[in-house]
Amino acid sequence: MKKLFLFILVTLIVQINSDAQTLSENELIQIVKKYHPIALQAKNLIEQAKTDITEARGAFDPFIQSNTTRKDLSGNNYYNYQNIALNIPTWYGIEFNSGIENVAGNNVDPQRTFNSSSYVGVSFSVIKNIVIDKRRAALEQSKILVSQSEAERKLALNNILYEATNQYWQWVQAYREWTIVNDVIAINQQRIKFTKEVIKIGERPAIDSVEAISQLQYYLSLQNELYMQMQNAFIQLSSYTWKENGVAYNLPENIIPSTPSFNMNQVENDLPIQEELIQEVVSNHPELEIYQTKFKFLEIDKRLKFQELLPDVKVKYNQLGKNYFLNETLGQIPLEKNYQYAVSFAMPLRLSQARANYSQAKLKIEYTKFQQNNKQRFLENKIREQFNILTQLRNQMSIQQNLYENLNLLLIGEQARFETGESSLFLINSREQKKIETLQKMNATIAKFYKQKTALRWASGVLWKD
Known about the structure:
disordered N terminus, 6-stranded antiparallel sheet, Outer membrane efflux proteins (OEP), 10 strands, two-stranded parallel sheet, 466 residues, alpha+beta
């Protein structure tokens, strides 16, 4: 992360030295992806989900336990029981166990083996929980939560990048409007000089100087207002720029947008293919990925609930031996001598709770499927809506470009007439104002077009890939 930030800073420094410090949309995207707190928080969610996997795997960790119990009253040693046991769970619900015991005393439970002994055994379910049990379900679901956290990270990035890029083009629009007025002010200042000169030689009335100055004052006032809007947009853009370790980074005040001039010949007005975007939604949109992980999660829950419909038959077998020699205990033939076994059977006769839980699990899957279908339909229509807006904006840019060119020709013609004494400064100012208003509208439309292209990628759920 340091390298990327240093690269961006070096790039900015080089641009400062060339008196052209700029910030592009892609540079902003990279800064947000690497350093914005929401992006970092999304990564932390994935790491947290991975720790849940480690926690679930703990249910399969072998464990050792020791137990000592003694009772002595009035000089009578009732019992002294010592046990050290090792239990090893496995994936398919089979548990292996071994241990050593020592039993002594005057009132020992007759079911216990007197003196020292050892055992090695196994326990498992015959029908229920063979396919899946709570431990396996918890581990599989924790792995699914990692995938869900990754999809949520993509979604969070997609949203924050949309906000940042939208603000970027808001800043670009404000900057372009401000520079347009700056250019007009320069023209008007030259016009005032020219007007004063022709007034001196008596070719124009003195009132023309008031007309020229009033036009300049109008644009100076507009310049001040647009500068404030540009600065506010710039401040809001700085809300999305951060450095490493969560340190807020304020963009340099002399930075400008790295965008082509808003000339229609330089605007990238190509349109993406609508059907490809819709297919991208179906295949990779983070919100639909989240639903896919929900399905997997609920499917495991359904399989687990189905186990409650099965009879619970448990088998436990221990091979016993005298003293503490486990190797001798293991060497004995099972079910021939020195063994202990138990078989248990349990099953509710009506299965009311089990049937209800299983039905609820299936209904949750159906409900989630309805939600997914509705969300997919909404996203597909959102793509079509955003695409239509983008198409109309491109058409609007073309119309405004033609209008601007015609108004510019009218202004040039009016200036030529003014120089020959056939027109007035009032008409020139009027023509100029209409031209500038049209240029500002075209500037706003071009900014909307770029914002709409970004909005289309956001609606497709792929903005985080940039």
